TrEMBL record, chains A, B:
This is Phosphoserine aminotransferase. L-glutamate binds at R42. Its EC number is 2.6.1.52. It is found in: Cytoplasm. The gene is serC. Belongs to the class-V pyridoxal-phosphate-dependent aminotransferase family. SerC subfamily. Residues 4-349 form the Aminotransferase class V domain. Homodimer. The keyword Amino-acid biosynthesis applies. Keywords: Amino-acid biosynthesis, Aminotransferase, Cytoplasm, Pyridoxal phosphate, Pyridoxine biosynthesis, Serine biosynthesis, Transferase. CDD domains: PSAT_like (cd00611). Pathway: Amino-acid biosynthesis; L-serine biosynthesis; L-serine from 3-phospho-D-glycerate: step 2/3; Cofactor biosynthesis; pyridoxine 5'-phosphate biosynthesis; pyridoxine 5'-phosphate from D-erythrose 4-phosphate: step 3/5.
Amino acid sequence: MSRVWNFSAGPAALPQAVLERAQREMLDWNGSGASVMEQSHRGKRFIEMAAQAEADLRALLAIPADYAVLFLQGGATQHFAQIPMNLAGAGDSADYIVSGHWSAKAVSEAATYVRVNVAASGEADHYLKLPARESWQLDPQAAYVHYTPNETIHGVEFHNIPDVDAVPLVADMSSNILSEPLDVSRFGLIYAGAQKNIGPSGLVLMIIRRDLLQRAGRPMAKIFRYAEHAANDSMLNTPNTWGWYLAGLTFQWLQEQGGIAVIGERNRAKAELLYQAIDGSGGYYRSPVEPSARSRMNVPFTLHDAALDTAFLKESEAAGLLALKGHKAVGGMRASLYNAVSLEAVKVLTAFMQDFAQRHG
Amino acid sequence: MSRVWNFSAGPAALPQAVLERAQREMLDWNGSGASVMEQSHRGKRFIEMAAQAEADLRALLAIPADYAVLFLQGGATQHFAQIPMNLAGAGDSADYIVSGHWSAKAVSEAATYVRVNVAASGEADHYLKLPARESWQLDPQAAYVHYTPNETIHGVEFHNIPDVDAVPLVADMSSNILSEPLDVSRFGLIYAGAQKNIGPSGLVLMIIRRDLLQRAGRPMAKIFRYAEHAANDSMLNTPNTWGWYLAGLTFQWLQEQGGIAVIGERNRAKAELLYQAIDGSGGYYRSPVEPSARSRMNVPFTLHDAALDTAFLKESEAAGLLALKGHKAVGGMRASLYNAVSLEAVKVLTAFMQDFAQRHG
């Protein structure tokens, strides 16, 4: 069939131009007579591509020189555990801000490796609003502060970087990296599973301030140590070469779009259009999230009558609108609006929503 | 350019039919209107594909029902560490057979998590022969015995599965899995990085006897625990969906070839042809490895005069023969003959070698 309008929360839509290029180059990449997947990661061609991908990312986000960029594996979930292994020594504690499903999971995976202090939580508010910065019980001696700027399931997003003084700020940006301009210098460590705004699943991008690579952490195998990955240009072992390549193509595509400022404007416009369609529906559709905390990337919404959910999903799929079913923890619908989702896709969605409301009024 | 004859040690050649199918399906997989990379791993289409891939692998290797099959990340290197984390409790020791670069690395990554007993080593023989089974100093109380059936750098391969009595045998089969029929029931745990005989890098396949999933191991985050991955059908977190898909296509291709018995015969014939060309060259080419330990998958060889190495590499590349340079630890040349390397490719290589010897005699 023809390409659908894909609102998947992840693994999510990729830019069509990226897929088309990967398709063209599948059997003969870069004049090598072989696929990029069939190349040694230690070969000249692959190393050049890998370095260009990093350079393009550095340019897109204006990453300062005192930050290393790593291309890792394991998903963000593995790094929920690996970050405390690397950044916390014996007896250390770390502050965690719990704003939804993923930050809660970060806590549970970290707990084996660091004394976790939940400095603030939105749980009592069912994660429909964010715990106000003034309420955070931060420990100035913490090894780091961890938070999740965007929660994909609950659809809440921090719209400002919290000030945590001198303690390194660690952010799981899996679902909002590269979605708007970012002041990297405010962070100690940024990490992101690739499968939303970067590329295919199985790749994790990390941006880490180099001084944090000096921390001893706990005893661990070399393969878990970020400093080793940094010292080996992320080729301590065989990286996910296909993921790295796709990420590089996505970075080029972002540049061709005009860079992150342009993408940020587009993302703002996309989210506004959808929230307006929800808020302007006279209660037919509802956003459960407090307006100030609404995510630009993941928009959960409910129908006024949950009995209509099945019809909504069936008809939207028939109309070529993919993956609108909400997460089971929240129910209802969810539209994810990552970078590769066009403004046109959101227009098609909102038009469908209006039409559905009229027909099923 | 046209497709080359690819002898890369890994990431290695993939079957051309697999690449062509992935190319065709790149923008519209399985009638979904989206790439396989753009699908939720929790969606019906992906789950069906994933289950079929596992079923096909089980059929290919006749994997008994009391073994779980896992699709993981991190490369074999991460599992050098993760295996002792899972299989060894506090105070346990494990036996390691060191037969080359990779088994030595398995020891160093494991050492944080288990008391390593090097039960045998080929180091004194420069890893050019295998330590005889009679010489192994095994501990009947060991948590497991770890060995590397095939060493890609030194080109040595065990041609029989060692008997280690009741202690679970753990094998890093990254470079020889699926290359010949295998009696899985002889093993406690088999694992393999995908990038040689399975698919692209960034995926690790594991076959583990289910009773070993009951071991407590050491305290660790859930994401490191194989039992959790098994209980969640390898979807504890987002898997490498592209790698899984390519692995599934490769399993189908193996079936189309006639299964592993046919592949095993083909691999034997390929290796014989190349070793005959080396041994029959009157000393122009030499294999440094003891004949009984020669690998079918990775064939290192030297030229009688190392001053000819540069010319050999330049001319072979010009003739469309890719990645013949030996590993820097060994020098000379190396041809890797994984499943996707055809008998025809080996014929082209041996013809080139004979021609080169005549011209540079």
